[in-house]
Amino acid sequence: MDVTTNQTAAQPAAPWSAVFALSLCASTLVASEWMPVSLLTPIADSLDLTEGQAGQAISISGLFAILTSLFISAATRGVDRRSVLLWLSGITIVSGVFVAFAPGYPVFMVGRALVGIAVGGFWSMSAATMIRIVPGKDVPRALAILNGGNALATTVAAPLGSFLGQYIGWRGAFFSVVPVAVLTLLWQFFTLPGMPSQERASPAAAFKVLRRPEVPYGMIAAALFFLGQFSLFTYLRPFFEMVTRVEATTVSVLLLVMGVAGLVGTSLIGLVIRQRLYASLVLMPFAMAVMAVALTAYGSSLGATAALMFLWGFVGTAAPVGWWTWLSRALPDDAEAGGGLMVAVVQCAITIGAAGGGVLFDGGGYRATFLFSAVILALSSSVILIGAFRRRVRARPQCAACVPASLAS
Predict the structure, then answer these.
(1) Which of 62, 113, 291, 391 would bridge 350 by S-S if both were Cys, CB 3.0 to 4.6 A apart?
(2) In a domain, 5, yes or no
(3) How far apart are CA 23 and CA 21, in angstroms?
(4) Taking the model in full, what pTM does it have?
(5) Domain boundary residue among 147, 170, 192?
């Protein structure tokens, strides 16, 4: 029996179990990636760092995610995609162990670099994997389940990390991800079908989509959005402790409020972007810029901060859905290459945002960081507005040309 027959026979066996295994993998990776956000203060104290230096744990994972997302397809040509996914899960386990038992800053950063490799590799392959393991009519449902794991982890990772950090320390909080990663690896091992490599693209393929007229504006606007978002988001815990003056338990509650709002926003945004995609992409970063400024003015009030965190989570967690929808419309015939570039753009923006926000936080305090975030988010809104305007201008001649043809027919 040949490989094709084996794959066909394996595919119906447990496709939805494999989908849920990948959803759990997404949750594990997101939890691992964003755990430092709620643990910056204890990490900094334990390793004798500033909060800004501890924030570079986000930057290093983002840097390695960028490199991996751009080149993993070309680097693993000829390798079964099932094997690649299993190796990425194994790297997640090793990363958790390195971080939890790091004797100092260098080993800690090596562990964070490893999780970046896993994140970049997994997300660049995720959509293509779903397309291959379920029938075509079920792909939207499978992708929804996958992104549900992402949204759930985004909701609970920061508050759960803060909560666990109080009782088992930041090292214990990081190590708690390891058993889940082991379960994820085993679940994928028993449910993922064989997926022989079909990749023939060169390492530069992702960059070729930038030749499309609409794509550069969207990619730049997305980069600015995530840069502005994470230059603020990464340093929320020290802001809560120094400005709002709350204890660790209240920090967990504020982060949970933001996460729950994100779940609500993610579930509702589809109703809006279906008809008003560009309007949403313009308004969301502008609204978050206003929130960033408001935090500098009213951050000492717990009630105002809680309300602003709800709004920030509602908009900020839902916004990526809008950007991936834009990608599917802008590159319907080249979504895989565009997806790899989008992952790189997002991770690059997160890296620069976390690093730049840390430098500003250490040098100028929270006001410098939050106002920087507001300016960058406003720029994102401006760039996508210009892109939308130019898109409309390009469309007008086409529509005018279509009128005589339509009448003639």
Answers:
(1) 62
(2) no
(3) 5
(4) 0.71
(5) 192
